[in-house]
Amino acid sequence: MTALVTPAPHGRSGRRVLRARVEARAAKWGRRAGTVAVTALLLVPFLPILLWAFADRWPYPELAPTVWGVGGWLTATAQGAWPALTRSLLLGLTVSAIATPLGAMAGRALARGRVPYGKMVTALLLAPVAVPPFAVTMGLTTVALRLGVPGVVALVAVLVVAAVPYTTYIMRAAYAGYDEGFEETARTLGAGSRHVLLRVHLPLVAPALAAAAFLAFLVGWSDYVVTLLIGAGRIVSLPLLLGASASASGNDPTIAVLALLATIPPVLLLTAVTVLSRRRTQR
Amino acid sequence: MRRTTTRRTRARALGTLATAAAVALSACAAPVSNRTGTADDGYASWEDVAADARGQEVSLWMWGGDEKGNAYVDDVLAPAAADQGVTLRRVPVADTADALNRVVSELQAGQDSDGAVDLVWVNGENFRTGQQAGAWECGWTDLLPNSAYLDPTDPLLAEDFGTPVEGCESPWHKAQFALAYDAADVQHPPTSLTELFDWARAHPGRFTYPAPPDFTGSAFLRQSLYEVTGGPEQVPAGPDDDGAAGATSALWAELADLEPSLWRGGDTYPRDAAALDDLFAGDQVDFTMTYGPATLDARVADGTFPETTRVLTLDDGTLGNASFLAIPANAAHQAGAMVVADLALAPEQQLAKADPAVWGQYPVLELDRVPDDLAEQFADLAPSTVVPPFDELSRGADPELSADWVAPLERGWRDNVLTGQR
């Protein structure tokens, strides 16, 4: 600050500009460094997984694998990794396909304040997130069995309940900032309700819908305990395979391959969601 | 069997807890408690079983951490079951308790038939918990034609970690705890654990054991308990019985005294058996240990372990156990499950999985009862310079302690040896 009060015959404003520029540059580099640090923090744990996925032998205390190979991929394939991946994809997509519209409807109603005791309803909707899944699952298994619900149906139902808090939360936020004036304008200009929904409403909430769908997908994609206990072992999903494999010592290459397979689809989806919503906002 | 019993993951602890809670609950709810499991389908003959089994799909829930075991079931056992008209579907679980949880939940909900679990690879704690919940079908094992190859007086098959088997599970594998050493470094191999401890004190830093609750480290604790007390018959039946405290304090004293002579002065322990194997492979220590010694040959053959690796023969024998296949009382496909359990006992199957290249699980059969040509093949199986034949390896085998002991010993080690010295 001293520089600013020092009298200077020429260039007081010039210095200020320079200072501002330096500060802006420093902030920019700071942000960049921050981004790099955060990215590194997220990526570094994957380095050993990547190495292990192609390590046929990596004895302690070597810093890198001593024998490279694809043994882990062959074993993972033999243990049924690919069918399990397909099942997990289907499960995630099913949960997402049900929980996203449900969350959108609930979120919209809550955002418009049309729900009596809205805060309580919101709290109730978020409750499944707060309760330990293992305890809930043990109880719900019995409930589903008493009701005679087939395992796979019960599985999808429970996962949808687990996913709805996320989708509702996101959609409520989206609808809170949603200007219904656009819909009214479209209607004034003669658009039918179908037209309004498809051409005005959905495009406006699309980024939020994509984010909600992604989170709901993750709920189905990553679940272990519900799939096994409520699903009665009918669906041997990727987390089941990964959990079983990781419960032993000495399977590191297989575990690494399964972990990669479990990570790649969500990362791809997340990238797609991000790119999609960027395009929307840029338009 | 290796890790069916004593997988010590948090999930397992949780699972056991939940099972225990469910058992307690179901006892209150009571529709379950009177089913101590009799053959309610009442199969009179094997022909009836075989006929009912045709066309059934059997869900075998088994711990899925053993890649070779998974491959054996998928590639050898399942095709053989298919020949008898039974489809075998493997459900891999991270923990055998998960399977039991499902069964207990079903029983608790009053589902007395048509259960999702048909067959479980089980022993020890999980078997006992299931017995308490009335979760197992009992009295069916004598029907299996291949049970004729079993020795009815075999103590390992009569009691499972102290719980009487009573026809509620059919044997599948035997296992023998073994220590291995590098003969190039250990000129005069010890013949007892006491001698081994003395050797370790004379050669600081060249011996260690996996930190319990690792499965193998936990077995080493039990083996050491036998050593300091003078044998299995000297150890009280349960950890709360008279004399138990004296036995364990002697064990902690011995292991704490040994600690400074261990690898890295006992400041740290290998986190699991695989880490100890890596130390042994890298010549950081001269001993390793395993509950599956049949795998040692392969590790010598592929160059992981030195060619001079040998199994340590202890005068007093080592821990042995068996693992089993159990059918839940409410299994939807009991006949099919019985066919699979019978097939698992067939000499051809027992021979196939005894091959270390396939799985390396020791047979439960009595070889005198097996047809001569097959018995010879068992004898010829991978003649090894590393591992003695199973009859020699299992000579004087010690029965496992009651499953009640496992967790208290692991906790005691943590409190008295791992943290007690610092």
From TrEMBL, chain A:
Entry-linked SUPFAM superfamilies: MetI-like
Transmembrane segments: 35-55, 89-111, 123-145, 151-175, 196-218, 255-276
Keywords for this protein: Cell inner membrane, Cell membrane, Membrane, Transmembrane, Transmembrane helix, Transport
Residues in the signal sequence: none
Membrane topology: Multi-pass membrane protein
Record flagged with keyword Iron-sulfur: no
Family, similarity comment: Belongs to the binding-protein-dependent transport system permease family.
Protein name: ABC transporter permease subunit
Species annotation: Promicromonospora umidemergens
Lineage: Bacteria, Bacillati, Actinomycetota, Actinomycetes, Micrococcales
UniProtKB/TrEMBL annotation, chain B:
One Pfam assignment: SBP_bac_8
Originating species: Promicromonospora umidemergens
Protein name: ABC transporter substrate-binding protein
Gene3D superfamilies from the UniProt entry: Periplasmic binding protein-like II (3.40.190.10)
Superkingdom assignment: Bacteria
UniProt keywords, alphabetically: Signal
SUPFAM superfamilies hit by this protein: Periplasmic binding protein-like II
Signal peptide: 1-29
Secreted recorded as keyword: no
